[in-house]
Prior knowledge:
Layout: H1 3-136
Amino acid sequence: MAETPESQAASAPDNTHWGVAYLREDLQDLRQQIRDDVKDLRQQIAETNKRIDEFSQTLGQQIAETNKRIDEFSQTLGQQIAGTNKRIDEFSQTLGQQIAETNKRVDETNRLIDSRFAWLITTVVALTGILIAVIKL
């Protein structure tokens, strides 16, 4: 029996050596797998960054095109507003002229009415004087 524990004790260091060797190989395999996984992860991150950059560039182009369309619309709208303002100014000027002409005609009509009224009053006074003179005679 004494021989059995010694033989086990002698074989234990031999098994330990193999166990450490296998453990070392497993650790190296794990390190390599981690390196591969990190490499794959970095590639995925690089691809994601590339897609983000492409999307950002596309989005920037779309924004630039939208801004250009807004500027064109704003310019067109400004021209239309300027045209409308010009037409309003022309209409206002024409209306002002027509009002001035109407006022002139009203003034002329008032002067004509005033002169005819004066003639009417003068005629009435003259006829009244003639009637009084005829009645007294």
